[in-house]
Design a protein that fits this description.
By secondary structure, the protein is mostly helical. The chain is about 65% helix and about 0% strand. The chain is built from 4 helices and no strands.
Length: about 90
């Protein structure tokens, strides 16, 4: 088992953590990597700022939000199309 995650995996985890709680090793390894890697820390801050800025545009009505399955499909489609952070 690799003890350190790469920057790409950390970027995915940072994005995923916006939609769901990271569990166990993924959470701990991501936090350790963010502690040690300034570019990934900056990316995580940028994602948090973006999330905060667009938060006011997200509908308050749960019926108008994407379901968990829909968010997963969008995330997978972005990964398949090369929409991954470098």
């Amino acid at each position: 088992m690799n003890l350190m995650l790469g920057c790409r995996q950390v970027a995915r985890n940072v994005s995923r953590a916006r939609d769901e709680d990271l569990k166990g090793w993924a959470r701990m390894a991501t936090r350790l990597h963010l502690f040690l890697c300034p570019p990934c820390r900056a990316y995580a801050r940028d994602i948090a700022a973006l999330h905060h800025r667009i938060g006011s545009t997200v509908p308050d009505d749960p019926e108008q939000r994407l379901s968990g399955d829909a968010r997963k499909r969008v995330r997978e489609a972005a990964d398949d199309k090369g929409g991954r952070p470098s």
